[in-house]
Amino acid sequence: MTMQxxxxxxxxxxxxxxxxxxxxxxxxxxxxxxxxxxVNIEQHPGGPKGTPFEKMFDVDEHYVSEMKxxxxxxxEDPLRCQSLPHMELAGWDLLELIMVSKAKDYPDLFKLTRDxxxxxxxxxxxxxxxxxxxxxxxxxxxxxxxxxxxxTQGDFALLHERDGNLWMxxxxxxxxxxxxxxxxxxxxxxxxxxxxxKAKKMGVFxxxxxxxxxxxxxxxxxxxxxxxxxxxxLDTSPENYHKWGPEKxxxxxxxxxxxxxxxxxLQTFFRLPRSNxxxxxxxxxxxxxxDIATKPKWGRRLHRVLRDIDPDLADYKGFAVNQExxxxxxxxxxxxxxxxxxxxxxx
Amino acid sequence: xxxxxxxxEIEQLSPLVKRFRFEDPKGGSLPVFSGGAHITVEMPExxxxxxxxYSLISDPxxxxxxxxxxxxxDQGRGGSLYMHTKVSEGDEITVSAPSNxxxxxxxxxxxxxxxxxxxxxxxxxxxxxxDMELKPYELHYAARSRAEAAGIKLLPxxxxxxxxxxxxxxxxDLGAILDGQPLGTHVYTCGPDGLITAVAxxxxxxxxxxxxxxSEAFTAPPPGEPFEVVIASTGQTxxxxxxxxxxxxxxxxKVEVDYSCRGGACGRCHTKVTACDGRILHNDHxxxxxxxxAQKDIMPCMSRFKGARLELDL
Lengths: 347, 314
What we know:
With 347 residues, chain A is of the alpha+beta class. Chain A has 13 helices and ten strands. In chain B, strands 9-8-7-10-11 form a five-stranded parallel sheet, sandwiched between helices.
């Protein structure tokens, strides 16, 4: 295998780290020095070689440890994975999409052999080899969505289309920015977005829903979203707020560079063929301020964005309590020089 | 996404309806789809490219081919006539990837499918999906005469597939079909507007929830008198021929308009009107009664215009 996988944790002693390669390919989400909502959608996949935009489902050095962390979260709380009965077909669609894409994009890590509906799947990093019958649920140890998302980084929501709306009727959610699948399951697009400030008034959701409903088979899209997290914790769920909420108070001017992480979500959209459902993978990337600041452009820009952000958004994204310390820390990397357009660092 | 395919079979199903089979010229696998999906077929003729959408009638999980059935409309814009008279086995043909505006609601305890005439087409793929998913259903197919009922050849003989031939005195009784269905049943109608309205009315009288009643009108854009539109951003005048849709005329003039179904159902080509001196002839199923009356919106895939000046916000 060509890829090296980190041995690291996302809880307890938090040994998570980014190698130089991971820092260089981090999906920094700001393309200018200010931030407001936009429906910032691009076609997916596609992007410079080595970036997380290049492949359908990015696999990186955190893969094996992230899957272990998911296993721990699911063992403690099985309701992080739910699929309403009519969504099983969408689960098979998703399994096919991921297996076919990964086998094609990472032939030295994954292998899929298909003879009609007799499938043979090999996942080398996780040491899995499985023969099963496609569309036959009894041939897998669990539902198809759960089976494949236990082997794929990122959270997954499967959206059922009906009555001109999208309904969150299935999902695997263990690395979320403070939202709960158990609470949202069965809700429609407007209901599950209700907590987002300002956006409704701006008409963002009407436009976004219209766009999503018109996503066709074979056209995939992506957008970046972001928030801030103290410590490299994947499971920042409402269910476990008592575990990670208090950690926000552990930030000091001395440790903010190491303990404060920018959390970036690479969100992608796929229309699934047999179910006509939409798959909405939400992939989480974490990097601390210290590592971000190794790229002068990113250090300057992040300082300006977080200094000037709308207070409602700082509150919603959960870092208002530490905003001053974060901005003070980042100010040392901002010499006032102009920044170039786009998200990529100057090489 | 466009697919360049080859016509591998043409079969006359009835005096007016032909079945077409398209395959990848290299024998590759086509994207599978969901029951009720359609593809858009490109029909180039001279300088005009017509594009009509047709429901897929083949097995949705079988990627070896796509099949559609087309009824010849002698009074139409010429799309179906083109398919019937100009296309032969072995020809190349360009189609879109499948897209679905008439999907089954897989939450349903039971599915009741009601087809009128050529409206049988989306149900042919749905039947196969329902069989594979082991979902209970019944299908009712109404046609004037047995000779016209092209769908009979494509339907399985089964106790839950009912054919109603009005010429033989077996008219479809919607009251009898809908009354007494188990809770959680969904009904789907495809056919003439009159049938769709009749099913919706009957379902409402019996107290069915609106969200359990689905329909798809399958009309292609109608021809009409020629007219002109003005593009607000450039001042350009675009002429629409009698046998051309407004969307096709805009495409020919290189004015970019988004689209999907080309049948007035999906809303993608929704365009704002900046000036209207005359009457928009709305033929779509997207705009509300209020929007139609206001004449500030138009669906270029289906609708036409009669009057002095129509200016589009493009």
